[in-house]
Amino acid sequence: MTVLKNNTKNHESGECADVKEGIKESNITSFVSQTMRARNLMDYHWRIIETVIQRKKMQALRAEKTLPRTIDFNSSLPKIVNDALSNSEFAKIPNLENRLKKLTEYHTVEREPVQGQMTLFAYEILERPENINDHTLYQASVAAWAIELIQSYFLIMDDVEDGAVTRHSKPCWHLLPEVNTLAMNDASMFRSLIHEIVQKNFTDPLYTKLVNLFNENDFMDCFDEELETGKTGSDITEGKCTWLAVKSLERCNAAQRNTFTSCYGSSEPEKVNRIKELYKNLALIQLYKEDQRSRYEIFMRKVRELPSDAMHLQDLFYKLLQVIQSKH
Questions:
Q1: Could you tell me the pTM of the whole model?
Q2: Where do runs of H (alpha helix) occur along the chain?
Q3: Residue 55 CB contacts under 8 Å (≥ 6 apart), including other chains
Q4: Blockwise average pLDDT, block size 10, the chain, 328 residues
């Protein structure tokens, strides 16, 4: 019996030892597994950190290169215009040549060339680095200034149509003593000069694509000028269908609607002021800011949802948004 008990105890001791050993091995395996997972997680985080650091370095490098290029761009308009006018039909008449030089700068240099800068940013981010050189940068500047000049052309046409008096705190082009009834003729020559600028610097198929792009003026309608420049008077007196007018009708009560219908489209100063007061009472500026904030959030969400390999596109959209926000 004693021997049997001892054998039983020995057997139980052996099982316990095996169990303990198994527990140790299990603990070791678990420890090793957890360690490996932790190491992999650390490696993953480090890769993310390195990617972010590398991205910030690239952004800083681009910023260092872009700043002087932006400064060069802002001062490059006279050279681009002079190059286009040289040996052109316009150059045969000195007075006409000087008139066009003045026309290209009159409404263009008074504003910040946001659209032109955005075009240049887009080119530098999307183009392959090995393709960027002095020649291609000059071509990009020409395309960017052509966009700005097209906008100036539309502003001149818009001022004539509206009978506007001032723009950028100075008389509109058509009100200058030497212009007057020649405004539409000047605008036509201005448009021809823009095509001359593009044609001298680009060949097909890019030339045709740019000309077709310039023949669409929808970009002028993307942002309502009323809220940007305070140029509401002529839009009210002309009875234009603007963002402010539409929102007024959407939000007004019966009495306010009567005010709107009786005053909107009138040139009487008192009625114009009543419309402006109606805009304030309907909190349209606040509504605009809320709409802008909503659009911003949608924009940021869509940028964040871009594929991970679309880093250059993300950089472009962030830069464009930064430029836009700095102007408003």
A1: 0.56
A2: 2-74, 77-85, 94-106, 114-126, 134-162, 183-201, 206-214, 225-229, 233-237, 243-251, 254-263, 269-281, 284-304, 311-326
A3: 311
A4: 47 50 51 52 55 54 51 80 88 90 90 83 81 89 92 89 86 92 90 89 83 57 42 68 84 93 90 89 87 81 73 68 60
